[in-house]
Amino acid sequence: MSDLIRQSAATLASAIAEGEVSAVDVAQAHLDRITAVDERVHAFLHVTAESAIAQAKAVDAKRASGDTLGPLAGVPLALKDILAMKGEPTTCGSKILEGWRPPYDATVVERLRANDIVILGKTNMDEFAMGSSTEHSAYGPTRNPWDLDRIPGGSGGGSAAALAAFEAPLAIGTDTGGSIRQPASVTGTVGTKPTYGAVSRYGLVALASSLDQAGPCARNVLDTALLHAAIAGHDPRDSTSINAAVPDVVAAARRADVRGMRIGIVKELSGDGYQSGVAQRFTEALAILEHLGAEIVEVSCPHFEYALGAYYLILPSEASSNLARFDGMRYGLRAGDDGQHSVEQVMALTREAGFGPEVKRRIMLGTYALSSGYYDAYYGSAQKVRTLIGRDFESAFDQVDVLVSPTCPTTAFKIGEKVDDPLAMYLNDVATIPINLAGNAAMSLPVGLAPEDGLPVGLQIIAPPMGDDRLYNVGAALEGALVDRIGHLFIEEAPAL
Amino acid sequence: MITRDEVAHLARLARLELTETELDHYAGQLDVILQSVARVSEVAGADVPPTSHPIPMQNVYRDDIARPSLPREDLAAGAPAWEDDRFRVPRILDEE
Predict the structure, then answer these.
(1) Does A361 map to a domain?
(2) Catalytic one among A179, A241, A317, A320?
(3) The domain containing residue A88 runs over which residues?
C-alpha cells in the first residue's frame, strides 16, 4: 500500500487487519510526516513517538496471534492537549500547566486505547480552549495547511490542522461553543460535537462544564462515525454522562439516504453576514440535498440572536469557577513562593504569570457576571435565554429532522487579524453556539472551496439530543454527492506542504 | 460603565495580580463586551425559567463502595512542592 498518510482511517484499518501493512509502518509513516511538516504547521505540542510505536507493535502482535482487531485498530490519532493522558504532558495550551503530567487517563483516552487506536501526540489549542484561532496558545499559533498565513480555527486548531496536513487520519477535539466545528470548517475536514453527555468528560479539563463535549474529527464522514462509535457511551465517572445506547452512527454513515427527510434552514442563521463564497457553497449544498430527495423547509428560531450574549456570560461564569483550581498549590506552575509572600499572594502571582490575556479576560468577565448585584441581570438572564433557545430548537425539530447552516461566517482569516479584538473573534461562533447551549448534536463537513479565496467552506448539520445518527446519514449523503461531482474529497486539493 | 477600579477589584477577587497596563487594557475591553452581552435581559422575562444544564438531571449517585485512590507518589510527582508526604504550601496565616 502506497502513500499511507493519504489513506482514510477505514482503509488503513482494513489493510492492517488484512496484513497488507503493519501498524508500526502506518505509525512510522505518520511520525515521519510530522517530522517533515510540523515545524511549519505546528499542529502538535508534544509527539508521543515512543508510546505510539509501542502501541502499534501491540496491534501487530495481536493480529499475529490471531485476535480479531477492532474497526480502527492500528489507526493513528492526534489528541487535543486538553485530555489527560497518563504520563504525557497535558498543558491545555497554557503556561500554568507546563511540565505537568497527569497521573491518570481520561475516559476518552482509555477508550481509544481499548480500541487499539494509536495516539501520535497532543495537539495545540487556544489556552484552556478559549478562542477561535489557536492564536491564544501560550506555545505559539498553529497554521492552516491550506495557507500557512491563516488560522486553522480554534480552539481545536491543532487537531484540525493535523488532519488537513495529513499528519493523522483521526483526531479528537472538544467543543464548548464551536471548537470542533469551526476548525473543521476552515480546514476542509469533518468534525462532530456529539449530544451533550454522549461522550464522557472525565479527564477532560473543564472550561464550561455545562457546554463542554469531546468529539471525533477526521477527513471524511465514515471515519468520523467510526471514531464517534469508539469514544461514545455511558461512563459512571461522569455524572452528566447519558445512560442510554449510543445511536448507530456507523450504520447511518453507510446508509447515506436523505429521501423523504425534512431539512430545515434557520431563518436567523441565513441572510447577510456571510462571505459570498460561503453563502454560494451553502446554497449549492441545499440544492444537492433537495436533488437527493430531501425537502428543504425554512424555520424560525427567534431567540438565536441572543445566543452569543448568553454564551459569553455563561461560559466565563463557569470558566471563572472551573479555573479557580489552578492556584499553584497541588500541580502546575507556582510563582512567588519565596518565603515572603502569603498563600493568597502566591496564588495571585502564579495565576498572573501562568494565564494568558484571553483567559484573564474571561475569568474577570465571569467573576463580574456572578458577583452580587449583577447576578440576576447577567448570569440569571443568560440562563433564561438558554431556556428560550432550547424551546426554539424543540419547535424547529417538531417540523424538521435536521437543521443546516453555514458553520462559519467566513473562510479562514489571517493570523493576527482579530487577535486583540475579542468581540470580532467571538462572532465566528454565532452559528455554532446555540447548539452547545441546548445540548444538541452537530457536525461540520466541507461543501466546497470559496471561489474568491480558494479556501474550504463548511456546512453545519444540527440534530436533536441523541439524534447524532442523523448527522452522519445526511453528512454522508451530501459528501457522497459532492465526491460524485468532482471525483474526490475537497481535502485532496489541499497544498502538498 | 465598568471602571478601572472595578477591574482592579475583580482581579483581586479572581486572584490575578494584574499589572497597571493590563488594568487599563481590560477596563476598556470588558466594558465593550459587557455592553454587547447585556442585551440578554431584553427577553429574560419573569415567566421564563432558567436553564443551568442542557439535560434535565437529578443528582447521580454511585454505590458507596471504597475504591483505591491515585497513588500518592504519582501526585507528589506533579506537585510544585512536596514535603513529608504532603503538599507544601506558603504560609496561610499572618504572623501578627
Answers:
(1) no
(2) A179
(3) 4-303+387-493
